[in-house]
Amino acid sequence: MKQKYFSILLAILTTFAICLGAAYQAIGSDRVYLDISTSATRKINIAVPWFETAGSSQTNNLLARDLADTLAKALKFHGIISIIPTEQYGGMQHADWKDKGADYVVLGRYKKENDSIALEMRLLDVAENKIIMGKSFSGSVNQKDRMQFKYCDSVVETLTGIPGVADTRIAFINHQDSAKEVYLTDILGRNVRQITRHKHLTVSPRFVPDSYNLTYSSYHTGNQNLYITDLRQDKTTRALSRRKGLNLAPAWFKNGSKMILTLSKRGNPDLYLLDDKGQIIEQLTDRAGINVSPTLSPDGNHLVFVSDRSGRPQLYHMDMRTRKVQRITFEGSENAEPDWSPTDNLVVYSSLRDGVYQLCVVNPLQPDTVMQITNDLSHHESPNWSPDGNQIIFAKRDGKRHQIYGIMKNGSFQRRLFTMPGSQSYPQWAR
């Protein structure tokens, strides 16, 4: 039976009663959360021993190890957690955790019957020697990753006050066999799903906020049209804008009711305000160079876009209340592909410096705050923020191939997210 990524039914049971009453008071309004906004913060040491189950040996149980490994990878993904290797304690749940340097331990149990599985996970505070958070999940075996991602996000929220991003989706373009198609994956690349099958050039996937929809641009009819598809199904997609020329890379308002789209129906690529049915409301730019790559502030009052009106591609800011425009980038020979953080007045973008595209962040309302966060010799392209505003994903290009990488917003913890055949580009994180 075909699995549907978004119709997973998880029976989230009641939180453990034993030992948790006092624990929930500890993580209430008086809890001191860890500050993860500074690079000087020490990483949290967490042990994730192999899961236990009745009547089975941990040592020989591959499922017990896989469950622990998946959860450990999801926790480590957040860049604030260091996982204590199981080799240091044999993978067993009973160890001298203080001696191993653990701040917290996740103690997991599972019960598998045919194609069903139930998981129980508890978070042990080593210093206090008490359980501070636990949850239970049940569902089909092919839903076990999703269950663990949900628990991972609860652990991160317990420790930082901000939910984690493990149970989120990343869309990207995969170039393979002369075609570029849209794919969808979890953060670890364990569950990858192909979305489009146009067998042609497809670019710029964009999630529509507060919906199950995804938009993208494709050339398969001969014109670069904008399409929208419901991710709960795999059979149909429909054109949202098919005006002659470019219909490219919309920036959606937070409620999904409007978008800003690049159209070239009059010859010059300009920015237009459209409703969610694809009807034009207003033209925002008018032939002042090429105008592309719009990105909106969370409140919808500010717009950053790319224009070559000064000769080379640079970032510009438009106040959506007054329509006043001003240039905000002056360093780097080219600056492009901006993305506005969902939580801060920060825009990440790709800047051409000494022949290499590097990632930079800037407060568009204070343009003198530019900070370069990469400096290696590979190209860093198409950056996009995580839903919590702490991380950035991007396409890293070495030679002709792109791969999806992640990095913390302060420039630390750069790593490849997953490996698959082909070349992956245009990553977009669902928010």
Automatic annotation (TrEMBL):
SUPFAM superfamilies reported for this sequence: TolB, N-terminal domain, Tricorn protease N-terminal domain
Cellular compartment(s): Periplasm
Domain TolB N-terminal as annotated: residue spans: 33-130
Keywords in alphabetical order: Periplasm, Signal
GO CC terms of this entry: periplasmic space
Chief place of localization: periplasm
InterPro entries reported for this sequence: 6-blade_b-propeller_TolB-like (IPR011042), Tol-Pal_TolB (IPR014167), TolB_N (IPR007195), WD40 (IPR011659)
Single GO BP term: protein import
Family, per entry: Belongs to the TolB family.
PANTHER family, per database record: PROTEIN TOLB (PTHR36842:SF1), PROTEIN TOLB HOMOLOG (PTHR36842)
Protein known as: TolB protein
